[in-house]
Structures are given as structure tokens and as C-alpha cells.
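Review form for a predicted model. The reviewer records the input and the model, then writes brief findings.
Reviewer: anonymous (R2)
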Amino acid sequence: MTTKMCKDDFKDVRKYLKQKIVKSNYLIGHQKERNQIYDLIQRTVECGESNSALLIGPRGSGKTILVNDVLHELQTNSSFLDDVIIVKLHGLIHTDDRLALKSTTSQMNLDNAVDGKVFGSFAENLAFLLACLRTGEKRTSKAVIFILEEFDLFCAHHNQTLLYNLFDVSQSAQTPICVLGITCRLDVIELLEKRVKSRFSHRQVFLFPCDENINIESHLDHMLKRIEYYLMIPEDLKMNSMIKKQWNTDLKNLLVDKKFKNVIQRLADIDLNERTLKNILFKVVSHLNSGKLTVNTFQEQINLLEKDDITQVIQDLTVLELCLIIAMKHHEEIYDNHPMNFEMVLSRYIKFANANSNIQGVQRPVIMKAFEHIQNLELISIISGGSSRIQKEYQFFKLLVTPRQISEAVKNSVGLPTEVVQWANSSLV
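Model under review:
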């Protein structure tokens, strides 16, 4: 006998699940990487060791979730909260060392120290902060944990002053400090200046969506396990017991349904990362009109995922603009995602145009206009940290679209010259 869910009961279920999906800091699997981060921070707090490390992995792979999960577990111990100060900085927010230093000072509760001198010049601010970090002994000083999100963006700061000093302090025998950088750049070590690199421990932890340490038979099993975690209602939750039982029973039946597994297999083939899954589950729960999950609710959201808006934007570009995007794609493939400027893209495009007589020659100002249009569409973004005096032709950019999106756009475009299609699909330039 099934229990019919009333409107208020269903509202409670939906509210609980949305909060669980959004706020969850638990990452399934990746136990080895989690243990490495846990031990690193624990040794800093309990043993007074100073450490530095980088957590590296693709966007959406769960790097921030993993770090927050580790901190959450450590904070269950009341003595941890008494012995540590956690400072969180973000490369997209703290765009220069001055902003990062001001935020650090505030998070360490040093705003009003020394009669306001902390608000003086950058040099005075930094000197004061470093003095605070260097004074004291291991046994009596509070440990300071620095979490640097988008770590690669801090490398673009002038002279990398903040990174240099943080790593320098992490090598000292005074206040215990742990500097943990989070980034998606695999080549991030190469972005560090020589003097900064010499003070970094070179400890790197890699996190990828496909976790080889999980005892599962396939990516599908892993995905189903994650869906079960996010959508299962715990028995100890204060809610109508019959409603909980019915919801969990329906979920378990859905997870073993063959048609449902085929739908989730498609999702696993498209994208394995945690962020994508959470976004889909949030939309599924938000769009529920009844108290029961169905295969169709998941099918609709995955269909929307496959209809990529960015792919449509690329598809609507002119032939010249699409050629420039393809030139950027080849540049990234050859130089391992290294930034590019207009001159590099222009050179690659001209080489292609000269090799194909059917491609009409275009004047340089027209190509520049096409490049600027691509920038206005936010398909590329300027890399911060460069001098404002640099001419726009030499300002470095990074491509914000994936090779798959470019390939899909080329595949679905009508009337493209054959040479352009072949160039887009070629791995050799």
C-alpha cells in the first residue's frame, strides 16, 4: 500500500533535499586524497609543522568540497577551533596582493592592532602581518591555515609578493602555517617565479572525477551511489515516517530500473564531475510536481544539458570568427592550454588561409573586429595581472570553450567550407 503525499509533506521533502544538495560538503570516494589533506592540516595544528601543498583537478571535480569536508571533520574537535585560524582567499575576489592582505588581516582579527598602523601602506601592512606570523613559538602560537582558491590567479599578482612571503613563512620554525592552494591548472608550478618556487614544498595532490580508488565496477555505479546519497532521506530526520519510507522505497526502485540506468549512463558519458550532477539533481527536485521521482524527470534535465547554449553561440558565429576559435583550439592543444594573444591567433589563421585557396583573404582590421566580437561574447577572457600599457594585440587571453563544444558547433553548422570542417577536426596544424 502506497502513502499519498500531501502538498505540505512534499514541500518539506523538496526543501530538505534542495538544502542537502546545495550545502553538502561530503565527497564520495577520493579517500586517499582526502587523507593526504587531512594529515597535512592535522600535523600543522597538532604537531606545529609548517606545510604547503597544491590541490589540483578539473573544475567541478570536488576540490573545494573535499577541503571543506576535511575542515568540517576537524572542527568537530573543540580544541581544533581554539588552536587554529582559517584564512580563505579567492583569486577572483582578491585580484591583487593589497586586497588579499587586507582580507587576511581582517580574518586574523588584526584590524585594530597597533593603533591602526595596519591600514598604512602595502609594505607596512605586509611587514606587520609577517611580524605577527613570525612571533611566538610552535607550542604556544595558533596555527594559521591559508586556503587559496583559484591559486593560479595569485601567480599573476605583481612580483608574487604575497605567495613568496607565505611560502617563506611556511619554511620557518616559528608560527605553524599551512598554505593550501586549489587550482585547475596542471601547469601551475611553472607559473611560479623562481624565488617563489624554491620556497614551495612541491607537494601536489591530484583530484580527478574518475577515482580509481573507489571499489565500484563502473562509472555508472559511482554515479548511482552519488545520486542515492543526495536524494536519500535519513531515518533520523524529523519528518512523517511513512512519507520518508515511501520516498526512500521509490528512490531505491528507481536506482535499479534498467531504463533509469541507461539515462544515467548517458550523463556519466557526458560529464562525471560533482558540480554537474548537483546542478541536475537540484533542477530535478525543483521541477517535481508530485511526490515521486520518475525516469522522465531525469531525462528532461539531461536533454537540456546536451543542448549546450555555448555550442549554439559558437554555431551562430561567422566563418571568420569560427576560424579564429578553431585557431585558438589548436593553439591550446599544441601548447598545453598556454594563454594566447591576437598575434598568435592571427598567425595561425593566416597560415591556414594561405594553405587553402578557397578561403578568401581578409584584412587585418576585419580580423581584429572579429576577435573583439568573440571577446564581447565572453568566449575568451583577458588574463588579469598584465600591464595596462600592453597593446591589445599582445594582451594574453584564455579560451573559455571546450574542444567538444567547438566540435559540436562545427558538426551542426550549415554551409561551412569543407576546408574549415577538416581543419576543425584535424589534430595536426
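Findings: Residues 7-23 form the longest helix (17 residues).
Further findings: The chain has three domains: 7-23+214-306, 31-206, 311-425.
Recommendation: see findings above.
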